[in-house]
Amino acid sequence: RQARAKNWLVVEGYMDVISLYQAGVHGAVAPMGTAITTQQIEKLLQLHPTLTLCFDGDEAGQKAAWRAMEVGLPALSDSKELRFLTLPQQHDPDTFVKTFGLSAMQQQIANAIPLSQYLFSMLSRRYDIGIAEGRGKLLAEVGQLIQRLPKGSYGWILREDMRSKLGLGKR
Q1: Buried (b) or exposed (e) across 21-36, using 16+ Cβ within 10 A?
Q2: First and final C-alpha spacing in the chain
Q3: Distance between CA 116 and CA 113 in Å, rounded?
Q4: Rounded to the nearest 5°, which phi and psi values hold at 151?
Q5: Residue by residue, what is the 3-state secondary structure of the chain?
Q6: CA 20, CA 144: separation in Å to the nearest integer?
Q7: d(Cα 124, Cα 107) in Å, to the nearest integer?
Q8: Tens of pLDDT, residues 95-126
Q9: Which residues pair with 51 in a beta bridge?
Q10: How buried is 100 (Cβ within 10 angstroms: 0-12 exposed, 13-18 middle, 19+ buried)?
Q11: In this structure, what is the dihedral angle of CA atoms 53, 58, 62, 68, given to the nearest 10 degrees?
Q12: What are the φ and ψ backbone dihedral angles of 119, each rounded to 5 degrees?
């Protein structure tokens, strides 16, 4: 399976894994009804330096994606990457690949957004970045999340990227 997998994805359920495998996506795994752990993410990142978290677009799926991001941060290093894929039209991987096929799923995987874009997108919805207080809250939360990262340059780069996206420039 490892030799056949081009991409590694974490999906919500076993039906997603089965449908993706049948369609030709061989690197999908599911935590099987429990939340994914840091150790599981570490193991998957040993198999491939990029791991895509593909959860349903509903509220529960998005909460699961955020939680997976939080527990995945300690597993990241400068050479490891988490990407995020939210499928359109309230599809899950099972229904999406059955409806649109393998090439459409591969396109979705290729367009998964990196952690930096995911964080900014989620936090800029949570806080009003049009005002100083909202920008401050966003940066404070990013600071708390960065503390979970292992030592290395990625945390500094992520913080500077957030500052840049907020129009604050470099320190």
Answers
A1: bebebbbbbbbeeeeb
A2: 46
A3: 8
A4: -60, 145
A5: CCCCCCCEEECCCHHHHHHHHHHCCCCEECCCCCCCCHHHHHHHHHHCCEEEEEECCCHHHHHHHHHHHHHHHHHCCCCCEEEEEECCCCCCHHHHHHHHCHHHHHHHHHCCEEHHHHHHHHHHHHCCCCCHHHHHHHHHHHHHHHCCCCCCCHHHHHHHHHHHHCCCCCC
A6: 35
A7: 26
A8: 999 999 999 999 999 999 999 999 999 999 99
A9: 8, 82
A10: middle
A11: -50
A12: -60, -50
Please write the tens of the pLDDT for every residue from 62-73: 888 899 999 999
Amino acid at 143: G
**What residue type is 149 in one-letter code?**
L
Residue written as tokens 């690949």? 97
